[in-house]
Amino acid sequence: MPATLRWLGRRLILAAFVVFGAATAAFAAMNLMPGDPVLTILGSTNPTPALIAQVRSDLGYDEPFAVRYAEFLGRLVHGDLGQSYQLREPVTEVITGQLLPTAELALTAFVLALAVAAVLAVTTAGRRPAVRRVVSALELLTTSSPGFWIGILLLTFLSFRIHLFPAAGGDGVNGLVLPAITLALGMTGVFSQVLRAGLERALEEPYALTARARGTGETAVRTRHALRHALIPVLTLSGWALGTLLSGAVVVETVFGRRGIGRVMATAVIGRDVPTVTGVVIVSAVFFTLINILVDGLYRVIDPRLRQEKA
Amino acid sequence: MTLVETAAKATAAPSRAAFRPPPAATLVAGLALALIGVAFLWPGLIAPHSPDVADPVNALLPPGGGHLFGTDQLGRDTFSRVIYGTRPSLTIGIGATALAALAGSLLGVLALAGGRVLDEAIMRVTDVFLAFPGLLLALLVVAVLGPGTTNATLALAASATPGFVRLARAQALVVRRSDYVRAAVILGRPRAAIVLRHILPNALPPLLVLALVNVGTAIIAGSSLSFLGLGPQAPTPEWGAMLSDGRDFLSTAWHLAVFPGLAVTVTVFAINIVGRSLQVRFEGRTPGAGL
Q: Closest approach of chain A CAs to the CA of B97, in angstroms?
């Protein structure tokens, strides 16, 4: 147990360093922005010099660089990500207000991708080369298509042609189906490739042979014994999956006109609302870092050998 | 496992897979890429019409007749726009990859050759950038610099660079331990000459494979940025931007939703098949080529 605690402490310190670095990069980005941010905030109206000076001191832009950096970090520690230029409300509130629809979409897509990938992998692993090859090629094809295009195709043919699903909005389950499929598709291809490779390795292990020798049926060997082992490499992909889901949400929410962080992000980038963009980026970096620690922690739970003092 | 390894695995994972394309598929993909190359260099050879000439009388025609892929809301020929769109669409992906591969390889080799302090500094900064998942770093860069072809290219280059830094450093590390580098050191060759003449060329093949695969990823990411209105501006016939323009006419003109996206998919699929074949060839010869 002390080894695990030491490991966790070390990881958290490293993570704090990475998040601090990410915040610094974000702050640098805000200050590198060409043009005067005060003019960007005031927009197209022709502001008087007095108004410009007023806004500048309100936002603290008249302070020296080092002071602003220190204040930025200080606010960040208190969960204050600054003020959105476009929406004129605190970025923290914008993000927390939009988190739920995106989380719902991302989680549905993730579960869908994993379930379909598991079925594909279990049915095709180590089976007829022709079938396997066709499925592999299809997987590569799905990872070669832009997600938003799949979304547009689904909209065109399932919503506009045969009116099976709502074209935009639709907060219920119906409004979730097409966006979730769109977001899941590329990920399904990657998951099933990794799962199949893992299953094929697992099916040659002695425990698979033992299970077969006991008279366990092929399906049970695959689902009850081999699949667990094959799921471990998928765990490694969690961080990658989070990034894919978040980037995917930016376009998918735009295509389907759904509420959520992705839509906020897309609008903020177009409107060059840098505080909102940096806010979303910093929050994602925190999530990403925590997920990576969680995954490594799960490895230690699954594989006790990693708990020995070495790393 | 350290944070670094996890991050490296996470970024490397999507290309690691068991699919070995049959030789015929690789050949077809290669031919498709050659054709796409022609469309990139001399679009006028293939396209029957100009990509920009509007003809409102013939707006939103379905495919067939004089217009293979139909026409758009301004009556422009969709097939010609898809062909002319090859250049702006691929420029972002290829440009971003070239920049990232160059900067990443130099930084990776520099990290290893420049002593401990520089190594720590470069690799820790790389870790920080790896913590921005997916497209988010690119979106941050575009938000700061503003939309446009050049800025979108720079943004995608920035988000791909950390991966190249990691791989270049890992490769250079392997090569540095080789006998021919030891021999060069014993012969008293200058440090810079060893890095440039021996380490860099021998670390190159896996980096080139990563670059090829990354071109595909960057083309998709680039079309996503354009779709959001952050890439080349109208009337440039970029594929992502064309899909965005066609969105308002989906109920009547399905062809506007199909063909530009098909162009992206065919291009990236061909690149991935060729990339996968090369990966299989390099596998085992150089450690880390699977990355």
A: 17
- By Cβ distance, the residue of A136, A244, A274 closest to B18 is A136
In a domain, A160, yes or no: yes
What does the pLDDT look like over A74-123, one tens digit per residue?
888 888 888 887 777 888 888 988 889 999 999 999 999 999 999 998 88
For residue A310, being part of any structural domain is answered with no
How high is the ipTM of this complex? 0.85
The total of structural domains in chain A comes to: 1
pTM: 0.85
Scan residues 217-236 of B and list those with Cβ closer than 8 Å to A.
220, 223-224, 227-230
Which of A17, A149, A269 has the CB atom closest to B230's CB atom?
A269
Question: Is there a domain that residue A84 lies in?
Answer: no
Neighbours of A54 (CB within 10 A): 13
pLDDT band for position A68 (cuts 50, 70, 90): confident
A193 vs B contacts (CB less than 8 Å): 16-19
Whether residue B235 is preceded by a cis peptide bond, meaning omega within 30 degrees of 0, is: yes
CATH number for the domain harbouring residue A122: 1.10.3720.10
Question: What does the pLDDT look like over B143-174, one tens digit per residue?
Answer: 888 889 999 999 999 999 999 999 989 888 88
CB atoms within 10 A of CB A118: 20
- pLDDT at site A80: 83
Q: CB of A275 within 8 A of CB of A30?
A: yes
**How many other CB atoms are found less than 10 A from the CB of residue A46?**
6
Residue A251 and residue B243: Cβ atoms within 8 Å?
no
Residue A290, domain member (yes or no): no
A-chain CB neighbours of B238 within 8 Å are: none
* Bridge partner residues of B64 (DSSP): B67
Domain that holds residue A265: 91-270
